[in-house]
Write a structure and sequence with these properties.
about 325 residues; alpha+beta; 8 strands
Length: about 325
């Protein structure tokens, strides 16, 4: 085999490997584009009849190849994740708590503990009452003796009185100085408080900068854009709601219809209130989609901002 034929065969092998690599890269690019363009479809429905609540939800992606199912029935929550017909994840949890039956040993034990605590409390109150009586008797006897001594004793000299007054004034001055020193000394809590205040001031000064204001406006625009894209295309809700307090019921109804301009055009809503009793009855249906390319585009637009790059990478 000559050198020319060897070089020719090596070149052919390299070309074959490059073709295989191009095929793999092209297939990966096609799959990526399909995954990005293919919408994530979400759908949910449910009904409520006071304590009986039933919900079901499904999220499908990539032509239904990836499917997430969520269900709630009889206080049991089920989660199932599937890839085509293969189950990747399955979990079922109970949301209800087991209640204790009447006359159980735990309740008997708690009753005995309560009786013991009541007895201890009554004995403590009796002992404290007796102690207070004795203390009052001692104070009364001491006060009588002090009055007798005060009547019998007379001021011997004015100089002693002035000396006592000077001592009192000195002690008051020392107390004031000690209070001032205690105020000047910062406790760990005071240091933490001052550090928090300085952090808040620093954040406020950063907030007021024009560059940061542009970033905040961009974040707002991104968030509202994603929410507008992901909002349900179909939304139906028919129901009755009521609480123990009529004021709370009115607030719920007011808050619901406050957002009606945002979602009213895409759905059918009939929500009424029952101000007499606590109730929750009705049914709903929600369906929408999210194209992954839209959030990715918003994310790339955020990465173009210098402040956000500095925040992420530094």
């Amino acid at each position: 085999m000559t050198i020319a034929t060897l070089g020719h065969t090596i070149w052919n092998v390299v070309l074959i490997l490059l073709r295989i690599l191009c095929i793999f890269l092209g297939a990966a690019l096609v799959l990526f584009l399909l995954a990005v363009i293919n919408p994530i479809v979400y759908e949910s429905a449910g009904r409520a009849n006071d304590s009986d609540i039933t919900l079901r939800g499904t999220v499908r992606w990539f032509f239904g190849a990836v499917k997430l199912q969520i269900g709630l029935k009889e206080k049991k929550l089920k989660l199932v994740l599937k890839f085509f017909s293969f189950t990747l994840f399955r979990k079922s949890t109970s949301l209800g708590e087991s209640e204790k039956t009447a006359g159980s040993p735990d309740e008997e034990e708690t009753g005995e503990n309560r009786e013991n605590s009541d007895n201890n409390r009554s004995s403590d109150e009796e002992s404290s009452f007796i102690h207070k009586k004795e203390h009052l008797r001692e104070n009364s006897s001491l006060s009588e003796e002090d009055e007798k001594t005060a009547v019998n004793s007379s001021p011997s000299d004015e100089n002693e009185k002035t000396a006592v007054k000077c001592d009192i004034s000195k002690t008051e001055k020392t107390k004031k100085k000690a209070k001032k020193k205690a105020k000047e000394r910062k406790t760990p809590e005071d240091k933490k408080r001052s550090s928090k205040i300085s952090e808040i001031r620093n954040l406020w000064s950063q907030w007021k900068k024009e560059e940061n204001q542009k970033t905040i406006r961009l974040l707002k625009k991104t968030l509202f854009g994603i929410l507008k894209h992901a909002k349900p295309k179909t939304f139906r809700l028919h129901g009755v709601v009521g609480t123990d307090d009529p004021a709370v019921t009115g607030w719920i109804l007011a808050l619901f219809y406050l957002g009606y301009p945002a979602y009213g055009a895409s759905g059918d809503f009939r929500l009424s209130a029952d101000f007499d009793k606590k109730t929750l009855k009705g049914k709903y249906y929600v369906k929408g989609r999210v194209i992954p390319a839209v959030p990715l585009g918003y994310g790339l637009r955020l990465l173009m901002d210098r402040n956000i790059r500095r925040l992420i990478f530094h």
